[in-house]
Specification:
By secondary structure, the protein is an alpha+beta fold. The protein has helices spanning 332-338, 361-371, 377-388, 392-406, 411-429, 440-448, 514-518, 531-536, and strands spanning 5-10, 13-18, 31-35, 46-50, 63-74, 80-91, 99-100, 106-107, 109-118, 121-131, 144-153, 157-167, 174-183, 191-192, 196-203, 211-212, 215-219, 224-225, 231-239, 251-258, 270-275, 280-288, 295-304, 310-320, 453-457, 466-475, 481-490, 499-503.
Length: 538
Amino acid sequence: MTRMGRINLAGNGAFIQKVKNDTTQHKFPGIMVFCGKYRKMRARLCFILLFIFITTRAGAIDAVVSHAVFYLHDSTQNNKLSPSVETYWEINPQKIHYSTNSEKEIIGKASAHIVFTTDSGFIKEDNFIIQTVPVKDARQLGLHRITGLRRYFLTTGAIHMTFTLTDLADTNNKYSFTDTFTIPQPNSSVFYSSVQLLDTIIQSSAKTPYEKNGRQQVPFCTNFLDEPRQTLHYYVELYGSDKAPKADYPLIQKIYIAHKPSEGPENNLIRKDTIKPEDLLTFSGDFDIRSLPSGNYYIVATVENNYHGPIATSSLFFQRLNTHPLEDTVRKAAIAKAVDTSLEEVNVLDLNKTFVAKYDLGQIRAILKMLLPFSDQEGTNTINGFLKSPQEIYMRYYIYNFFSSLNKKDPEQAWKEFSATIIAVNKKFNGHITPGYETDRGFMYLRYGPPTEVITVENEQGSLPYEIWQYNSLQQTNKKIITDAFFLFYKRTDMDEFRLLHSSVSGEVQNPTWRSYLYANGQGGNNGVSRAEQYIGK
C-alpha cells in the first residue's frame, strides 16, 4: 500500500490533501508540482508553484487532462466487454478565483464540459460543476490539489475529446483541451487495458470516483516525472488469460521500463509474474526510479507464452527529469525484490552455446519466416509480432524452443534436418527475387507437403498461366484432416511468380470470384474444356 494523501470530496470535484510526499519532504511546505501536456515544446516545461492564494485576479485556468481505457462487462450488451474511458484532470489552484460563502468559507467553482465525438459525429457529452473544499483559512488552500475523475462507456475506434473549464467567478477565465485517441476493439483472447500511472493509493473501499478493487487509486495526470519524484506507481488490467491455448502455459508477464517498447528493461527495472487463467487480472506496483537518468521512456506490460513469444502488450510513454541519478549499486535489494519467486527454479539457457548464436539478426528474421508455414494462428501472430518489433533475445529463444520441441535431446539436429528441407524448397520454387520458402507454392509445400497431383497449364486460350495442386488428403496445423483438397495458383505476368488465387482449404485463400482473375473474359474458360473448370469449376 502506498499512502501519499488524504481524499476529500466536495460536490463533483475531488481534492487531495498532502500529508506525506512519496519521495522527500519539500523545502517549503505547500509546494506542488504541475506539468502540462507535452504536445507542444512549451508544454514540456514543468512549473513549480508556491500556493499563495489571494482573491484578486487569478489569470487563465491551468489544468492537466489525461485518460486511460479499461474494459467492463456491460449488462446492457449481454455482459460483453465494453470500453470504459477514465478521464481525469488536475487544476492549478492558483489559477482560479476564490470567494467566500455565507459561512465565510473560502471556495472556488468551475464548470466542466466534456464532449466525445467520432469522425461520424457526436457520441457523448457531460456537464458538471467542480467545487473546491471550503476552508476557513486561505493558507489551507496550499494543502489541496484540485483533481477529478469520470468514467464513460464509449465506442471503439478513433475518439475526439474536448474538455473545457470555465471559472464561475469569472466566465472569461477558461481552459480548453482537445485530444484524439483510439479505443481498441476487445480481443477474443488475451489483451491489456491502458497502462495507467498512479499518484495516490489508499487502502479504502469508500465509494468515491477513485475507488477500484477496494482501494482509492488517484491517477497521475501527466507523463512527466520530475526530480523529487522517486517512485513510479502503475496500474494495468489483463483480460482473457483463461482463453489462451493450454499449449501457451505457463504464461509469464513482464512489466518493465525501457527506452522503447521493443527494447529490453532499463537499469533492471522489471517485474515478472506467472499468470493465472482468469477472465480479469489486475496488476499494480511501483518502481524505484532514483537511478533512472533524464530521458524519454516507456513503461511496458507484456505477456509471453512458454516459447517466450509475446501474445499481448501495452505501453505508456513518459518523460523523466533526473540530473543526479542514484548509483545502481544502491538498488540491489529492490532488483532482487522485483524477481518473481515462482521463477526461481527456472534454468536460464545460455544461447551463446547453441546453434542460434552463429546467426545475425537478419538471419534470425529469415529463420522466423521459415517457421510460418508450420505455425498455427497464435504462432503466426507471435512471429509477425517479432518481425514488426524485433526483440532479438526472445526471437532467438523462440527459434531454439521450436526445434527443441521437435528434438529435445538435440535441437541442432532438428534444425539441420529442417534446413535441408528449406534448401530443397528454395531450389524447387525459387522466384526471381523471393526465396523459394517465401513464395506461395513454397509456403504451401512446406505446410502440407508434396501434392498428390500437379497440373500445370501454361498456354490455355483465354486464361493466364496457372497451376493446380490436388491433395487426396492433408493435415492442417490444428491437426484436422482435409480430403480431396486443391490449390489454384496463377501468374499475372511472365516475370511474376505463381501466386495462390483460390483454395478449398479453410484458413487459406478462398476466392469465389477466381474466374474474374484467371480468364480474360472474367467468366469462364472454353465451354468446360479448361482444366481449371474441370477440376474446380463446380
